[in-house]
């Protein structure tokens, strides 16, 4: 259950202010079928983070526990610093919109997550815990907890959550967890 909790919290915090939130807002403005967007987002995140979890568990079997500790710890610190950089939303590729709410959400969310900090965090969490199911469940839950409200509450919600403060909080959390992992005192990551 620790892997589920850590994955949910870590991915949720990393996701705040991410480009996929802007994508959710864009899709909500474009399509009335919010449930179809949620379903597409869920399937895309599940597939993307399943691959990430498999890679993380695979890496954990290849690398010694001491090297894994250092790699995960330093990587968490790097992700912490990375979240300080606001994402450039850009315009989602409109060619995918012709596939409807579900198809557009599925395709655009899957593509947006490739190489994203939440995908990398999922790889690291799976490597740390070697519990693919719980890490995958937590990372998908974390993504949905942050992005689904954006679909239904839209701009009102984004105006009330100061993105800069959330990025700083996420940075501090990831750097703290990274340092605890490196020194072997992980609270959530031991």
UniProtKB/TrEMBL annotation:
<feature type="transmembrane region" description="Helical">
    <location>
        <begin position="165"/>
        <end position="188"/>
    </location>
</feature>
<dbReference type="Pfam" id="PF01169">
    <property type="entry name" value="GDT1"/>
</dbReference>
<feature type="transmembrane region" description="Helical">
    <location>
        <begin position="67"/>
        <end position="84"/>
    </location>
</feature>
<keyword id="KW-0812">Transmembrane</keyword>
<dbReference type="InterPro" id="IPR001727">
    <property type="entry name" value="GDT1-like"/>
</dbReference>
<keyword id="KW-0472">Membrane</keyword>
<feature type="transmembrane region" description="Helical">
    <location>
        <begin position="36"/>
        <end position="61"/>
    </location>
</feature>
<keyword id="KW-1133">Transmembrane helix</keyword>
<dbReference type="GO" id="GO:0016020">
    <property type="term" value="C:membrane"/>
</dbReference>
<protein>
    <recommendedName>
        <fullName>GDT1 family protein</fullName>
    </recommendedName>
</protein>
<dbReference type="GO" id="GO:0046873">
    <property type="term" value="F:metal ion transmembrane transporter activity"/>
</dbReference>
<comment type="similarity">
    <text>Belongs to the GDT1 family.</text>
</comment>
<feature type="transmembrane region" description="Helical">
    <location>
        <begin position="96"/>
        <end position="112"/>
    </location>
</feature>
<feature type="transmembrane region" description="Helical">
    <location>
        <begin position="132"/>
        <end position="153"/>
    </location>
</feature>
């Amino acid at each position: 259950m620790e892997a589920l909790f850590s994955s949910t919290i870590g991915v949720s915090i990393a996701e705040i202010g991410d480009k996929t939130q802007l994508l959710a807002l864009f899709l909500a403005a474009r399509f009335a079928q919010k449930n179809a967007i949620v379903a597409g987002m869920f399937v895309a995140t599940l597939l993307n983070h399943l691959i990430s979890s498999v890679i993380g568990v695979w890496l954990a079997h290849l690398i010694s526990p001491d090297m894994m500790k250092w790699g995960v710890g330093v990587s968490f610190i790097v992700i912490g610093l990375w979240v300080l950089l606001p994402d450039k939303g850009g315009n989602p590729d409109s060619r995918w919109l012709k596939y409807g709410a579900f198809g557009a959400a599925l395709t655009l969310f899957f593509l947006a997550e490739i190489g994203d900090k939440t995908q990398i965090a999922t790889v690291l969490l799976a490597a740390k815990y070697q519990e693919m199911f719980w890490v995958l469940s937590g990372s998908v839950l974390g993504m949905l907890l942050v992005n689904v409200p954006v679909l239904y509450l839209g701009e009102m919600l984004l105006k009330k959550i100061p993105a800069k403060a959330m990025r700083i909080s996420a940075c501090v959390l990831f750097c703290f967890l990274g340092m605890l992992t490196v020194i072997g005192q992980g609270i959530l990551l031991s």
